[in-house]
Amino acid sequence: MTQEATTGVYGNPPAELADxxxxxxxxxxLLPGSPALERQPEGSLAAMVMLAxxxxxxxxxDIAQALRxxxxxxxxxxxxxxxxxxxxxAKELKAFGCEFEETALRHHxxxxxxxxxxxxxxxxxxxxxxxxxxxxxxxxxxxGVFSWNxxxxxxxxxxxxxxxxxxxxxxxxxGVGYLARAVLxxxxxxxxxxxxxDRRAVEAAAKNITDPRAxxxxxxxxxxxxxxxxxxxxVMNPPFHDGGAEDRSLGQSFVRRAAESLRKGGRLWxxxxxxxxxxxxxxxxxARAVLVVEADGFKVYEARK
Length: 305
Known about the structure:
Layout: E1 7-10, E2 25-26, E3 45-51, H1 56-69, E4 70-81, H2 89-95, E5 100-105, E6 108-114, H3 123-128, E7 132-133, E8 140-141, H4 153-161, E9 167-172, H5 178-183, E10 189-196, H6 199-208, E11 214-218, E12 231-236, E13 241-242, E14 245-246, H7 248-261, E15 262-273, H8 279-285, E16 288-295, E17 298-304
């Protein structure tokens, strides 16, 4: 980061709600290559503009980190949709000891605050939202990561029906490594490429998966070059939300990328919520696609290239 880059931005604040300098440094963990806000030195930024995440623990953690990295007198502009945490921003900033002004615009609440003189009230929120080992799952994880403190039932259903796999494969949208851990327990698996767009998930996965056959990548599956070609198998529980809104094209992009990366005869194992329409997409891109099981609100498919 250069000396001139004194303003940070977190997420994608709507342009009509806040002015973000063109040279602002992006700190979102969902944009590969962005620096980590929690590793930014205290008092190093003049200002921060943040679209706060909807999850309470994650939001309080991120706001606290943003306040921590501001210079004395530095300005934080934080916003969120009213029904996705925006209505709580004022209360949370007050608890951090901030002075602020609040406005409402386009279904968002927007708070403009300055860094508090006393930073001690930030520490509990920073600790609550930090990377930790979850007792219930035995896995390292962090609030904000998909299904961060529980095993997703769709992944559990896929794992229950997954056959013995062999050769070179990938786990697309690997999260903290729940599926990968089971795949790597299969002795005939030679290599597993794990990819996720969330830096926090990738860092947790690196602590959960130490098998030398695994390679873990912080990358957007939808972009070319993130996955090798000629793979023997792919497993995935693809996302279908973007910024809190359902986006079915996300999962369809994952299916398309899987089809491009598998060798002829290679197999895709996919789990998805029951209401998501992947059937036609699978049939268009694969020689054969079979519904293996439908249970507990989820579906599992096997598709052959």
